[in-house]
Design goal:
Layout lengths: L1 E9 L4 H12 L6 E12 L7 E10 L2 H7 L6 E3 L21 E3 L3 H12 L5 E3 L5 H14 L33 H11 L16 H17 L3 E3 L4 E8 L5 E8 L4 E3 L3 E3 L6 H9 L5 E2 L2 E10 H9 L16 E3 L5 E15 L9 E4 L8 E10 L1 H4 L6 H16 L6 E5 H6 L17 E3 L8 H17 L9 E6 L6 E2 L14 E3 L10 H19 L4
Parallel strand pairs: 5-6, 5-11, 6-7, 11-22, 18-19
Antiparallel strand pairs: 1-3, 1-4, 2-3, 8-9, 9-10, 12-21, 13-17, 13-20, 14-15, 15-16, 15-17, 18-20
Helix pairs in contact: 3-6, 3-13, 5-13
Length: 541
């Protein structure tokens, strides 16, 4: 088949129009077209008066060789790539070697465990939180009753932090082996909508993610995998041999059990601060890395739809509009939108008592009233938290504690209207924008819970963004603090073999290890690490 890319048609086109456009582009007659399949669909909204749908198509034609020869120099006409996943190895028959252990059941851990199970290695999955149904009840406990369970919340539990998010399934990572396709295919098998295979910016939403991760768990268990929920890894047994090489021997669990383990995937997510501390104490090589901090900003979704789509706002083919914006400030900082959630809500995402953290979430329909995104400022270890590999965690905690106090010390979040923020005065009443954060927003001055350089950078950026997205700096738009968990503050550094630089047998993976930045990239990294571990286990011994 032929992959035809970058084919643009008007919003109101028909299926017949798509076929004719493909034939015209390839210079063939309609009768020479055998079959056409949509591989990817996005939109081009640069001209609001003439928004187009942009397609990548897989086209079957009568004389494929002739078409490919005529378009040999055209990057938009190529053979359709083979995106089928191919296992790198299989467990030997009657395999009785070490069982791999996966710590964490977020997107990275789930896909790592799934691939290991499919290859026959019967992984053990250790998850400090609860199974996803129970975890959902605990999460709502914080949102509705201001009761936080430090082991079962937005950050910890089956499905990971991605379960309570927009469920975005796109990434800018290089993916020459099409591992992202493997991820999406497994998600569809587990109950995700088919359109995630074709949409340029696919997403699932929280409710569908819940049932999906349950289905993946069932698959792993049927293949011999084993889950241990409400089990935290409290320590790592590491021995140094006579050759001076450190080796992982096993795990000390919160249940009191010692689990012998020589091959462990660390997929703990970006908020496993106690685990990072234990790894550091055990001498595992770990370093500070950049991340970003800021706020969540909310606007009515209708404002964003109009700003992005003009007269086509509300068109069902376009759905709820999103944005991605950034600005380099005079103080050298970069302010940018992060984890934009169309038609969603701002949620409480704390995992430690006495701290407030915000995040964004939406359902598959993206039908709630407000749009929200992180409005964050870049920070780096050298400039902002030098001197210690775990200093970024202390930086996060400081401002999360300040936000807790500024919100009233009851898990309400501090909030401020844009006009008051720009005027350098506390907010005392809301305007036309009602914030969605639960358990509630306490109006105040956000300068009390963010670094001065972050405040000044956001003040500079807001009018700039208002020119890019009309209404973005509307006086009544609401900002809610604080957004501190944009990515992991540490990197558990690994080598080309995907193992810890100084502790063989430990395989750092995903967002918590500093090697991913979202559901899809974390899941892809989980597959890559699982493959490396499986190849090691499959070697003759």
């Amino acid at each position: 088949m032929i992959r035809l890319t970058d084919l643009a048609l008007p919003l109101d086109h028909t299926p017949a129009d798509l076929e004719r456009a493909a034939c015209d582009r390839l210079g063939i007659a309609i009768g020479d077209l055998a079959r056409i399949t949509v591989a990817r669909r996005g939109n081009d909204a640069r001209r609001k008066s003439a928004i187009k749908l942009v397609y990548s198509l897989d086209v079957e034609v009568r004389d494929e060789a002739d078409v490919l020869a005529r378009f040999a120099g055209d990057p938009h006409v190529r053979p359709t790539p083979d995106t089928a996943y191919k296992f790198v190895t299989r467990a030997p028959e009657s395999y009785d070697g070490p069982r791999p252990v996966v710590i964490g059941a977020g997107p990275c851990g789930l896909l790592a465990a799934l691939v290991l199970a499919q290859m026959g290695f019967r992984p053990i999955i250790i998850e400090r939180g609860k199974a996803v149904r129970e975890r959902t009840k605990d999460t709502w406990g914080l949102w509705r009753r201001s009761v936080l369970d430090p082991e079962s919340n937005v950050q910890f539990g089956e499905g990971g932090a991605g379960t309570f998010s927009d469920g975005k399934l796109y990434s800018r990572i290089k993916d020459p082996r099409h591992l992202g396709r493997k991820v999406l295919t497994e998600f569809v098998k587990a109950g995700a909508p088919d359109d995630i295979l074709t949409e340029a910016h696919p997403h699932i939403g929280t409710f569908r993610l819940v049932t999906m991760v349950m289905s993946i768990r069932e698959t792993i268990e049927k293949l011999g995998g084993e889950y241990r929920f409400q089990t935290r890894v409290e320590d790592f047994e590491i021995e140094t041999g006579e050759d001076g090489v450190r080796r992982l021997m096993g795990l000390h669990l919160s249940t009191g059990e010692f689990l012998p383990a020589s091959h462990v995937i660390m997929a703990v997510g970006h908020s496993a601060r106690d685990t990072f501390q234990v790894l550091y104490d055990r001498g595992v090589y770990i370093e500070a890395k950049p991340f970003a901090v800021g706020v969540r900003i909310e606007h009515p979704q209708s404002w964003i739809d109009k700003a992005r789509y003009g007269p086509s706002a509300g068109n069902r083919l376009l759905g709820a509009a999103a944005y991605s914006i950034s600005h380099k400030c005079t103080n050298g900082r970069v302010v940018y939108s992060f984890c934009m959630c169309p038609g969603g809500r701002v949620v409480a995402a704390a995992s430690e008592e006495g701290r407030v953290v915000t995040n964004g979430m939406s359902q598959y329909s993206r039908a709630e009233f407000n749009a929200n995104s992180g409005l964050v400022v870049d920070i780096t270890p050298e400039r902002d938290y030098p001197g210690h590999p775990l200093a970024g965690i202390a930086f996060q905690r400081k401002f999360e504690e300040l936000a807790f106090r500024a919100g009233g010390s009851n898990y309400r979040a501090p909030g401020q209207k844009v006009d008051d923020f720009l005027a350098r005065r506390p907010s005392s009443k809301l305007g036309v924008v009602t914030p969605s954060y639960q358990p509630g927003v306490h109006l105040t001055d956000l300068k009390d819970c963010l670094p001065d350089f972050v405040i000044e950078a956001i003040r500079e950026a807001l009018p700039v963004f208002g020119r890019q997205v009309p209404g973005y700096d509307h006086p009544d738009a609401v900002m809610t603090g604080v957004e501190t968990r944009t990515s992991s503050p540490v990197r558990i550094t690994r080598g080309r073999d995907f193992q810890s630089l100084n502790t063989p047998g430990l395989y750092p993976a995903g967002e918590g290890a500093g090697y991913a930045g979202g559901i899809l990239s974390a899941a892809v990294d989980g597959i890559r690490v699982a493959e490396a571990l499986a190849l090691e286990l499959a070697q003759p011994r």
